């Protein structure tokens, strides 16, 4: 009897811990994409490391952190999961960083175009405010179903939330705060 009570208590604690872990409670909120004005912000797939090397050059993938084999495979798997549900995007906007562009292309979910307002400002914190405002303006000017493939720092600046590699936050403009309301998240486990 005591063992059963302890087991039940452990399961309850595990459930609470999972619900508190960012993304877990809302993971795979496919219906959120159907809400009026909703669009998706995705963190690029797995690219080992943090930041970029000192010799980083925009447009030269040999100087950047890039997707590893797992990240490339996962991007394709995420795209397949969306296509299996009949979900595509009218536009896929991407940072100019190779890991974001490659993620966007491998998803194969709609026409991809580079949008410098979604470039990382990890090394240039002074650009955070102006670039985030420019990103908000870019999104406000768009219509249709939009997917943005960008970086953790950009997503956090826009939403106040963290994401894992390959995770999407489904958001829409919040007129009361001039920011974005997070409607849910989608995370396809490898």
Automatic annotation (TrEMBL):
Residues 1-27 form the signal peptide. Keywords: Signal. InterPro entries: His_Pase_superF_clade-1, His_PPase_superfam. SUPFAM superfamilies: Phosphoglycerate mutase-like (SSF53254). It holds the Pfam family His_Phos_1. This is Phosphoglycerate mutase. It comes from Puniceibacterium antarcticum.
